[in-house]
Design a protein that fits this description.
The chain is of the alpha/beta class. 43% of the residues lie in helices and 14% in strands. Helix 1 (20-26) crosses helix 2 and helix 3 packs parallel to helix 4. It binds 3-methylbut-3-enyl trihydrogen diphosphate (2 copies) and magnesium ion. One 3-methylbut-3-enyl trihydrogen diphosphate binds at residues 17-22, 62, 66, 77, 188. One 3-methylbut-3-enyl trihydrogen diphosphate (IPE) binds at residues 17-22, 62, 66, 77, 188. It comes from Oryzomonas rubra. It is an enzyme of class 2 (transferase). Keywords: Magnesium, Metal-binding, Transferase. Its EC number is 2.5.1.-.
Length: 251
């Protein structure tokens, strides 16, 4: 496995877990079998991320657009989600992991919501990694809903229009309180963001792999993290500024 420098891991890692359906179809299996195998990859990634000391892990599990998939697939995904949360909560407690959810919770079936509610409550005192599940999540929806909540506070006189800053606005998003992701991994070869964390990904390092999510292994995970460690995040500055040495021009 790739050697990793403990001090240079992403504080917040976000993952677009993609390719479950194609993984299954390639094997003449039903798409849901791919989702089931994908849940095994989630267990591995959660365990590894927590072992490595990553503080925040955010997984895109179901998008607002995914509601338009065949009803059978949506139903099976919701059932799988509920089963996963139920099964994994004890392990989350042992590993000191706290559950968090972003997205439109009210769209989810009542039983799924109740299961999530229990898991969030049960793990709320945990102080280790924060595992955020993006469920019925869409970045544009999140931003417009944040704008609407903010507009209400302005109308109520709690905030003046001139007081609106990027930091203040960030606090109105579902991710308020979470740092922006440092690193985003997307599996399955698609090179797009698919409406995930649009605001928060402004300066995130992106990593794409052809591997389908059910085939994503510990080795690949470490390879992705090693790739992150080799990058220089400049945030608009020059390389010399970051290395704290004058360039030839301003020396
Ligand atoms: C990702 O796998 C899981 C969800 C979106 C719920 P997909 O189901 O999108 O798999 P592909 O992209 O069709 O292969
Ligand atoms: C993004 O994957 C959503 C999740 C991983 C949950 P999709 O498979 O839905 O995205 P598109 O349709 O390929 O953009
Ligand atoms: Mg997909």
């Amino acid at each position: 496995m790739e050697p990793l420098e403990p001090g240079k891991l992403p504080t917040h890692l976000a993952i677009i877990m993609d390719g479950n359906g194609r993984w299954a179809q390639q094997r003449m299996l039903k798409r849901i079998v791919g989702h089931q195998r994908g849940a095994e990859t989630i267990k591995m990634v959660v365990e590894q991320a927590s072992l490595l000391g990553i503080k925040y892990l955010t997984l895109f599990a179901f998008s607002s657009e995914n509601w338009s998939r065949p009803a059978m697939e949506v139903k099976a995904l919701m059932a799988l989600l509920k089963k996963y949360i139920r099964q994994e909560t004890a392990r989350m407690m042992r590993k000191n992991i706290r559950y968090n959810v972003i997205g439109n919770r009210s769209d989810l079936p009542d039983d799924v919501n109740a299961t999530l509610e229990d898991a969030i409550r049960e793990t709320s005192g945990n102080t280790g990694m924060v595992l955020t599940l993006a469920l019925s999540y869409g970045g544009r929806q999140e931003i417009s809903m944040a704008a609407s909540r903010l507009a209400r506070d302005v109308a109520a006189g709690k905030i003046k229009p001139d007081d609106i800053t990027m930091e203040l606005f960030s606090g109105y998003l579902d991710t308020g309180g979470l740092p922006d992701p440092d690193f985003l991994i997307r599996t399955s070869g698609e090179m797009r963001i698919s409406n995930f964390l649009l605001w928060q990904l402004a300066y995130t390092e992106l990593y794409f792999t052809e591997t389908y999510w059910p085939d994503f292994t510990i080795n690949e995970f470490h390879k992705a993290l090693a790739d992150f460690q080799s990058r220089e995040r400049r945030f608009g500055k020059t390389s010399d500024q970051l290395l704290n040495r004058g360039s030839l021009l301003n020396a």
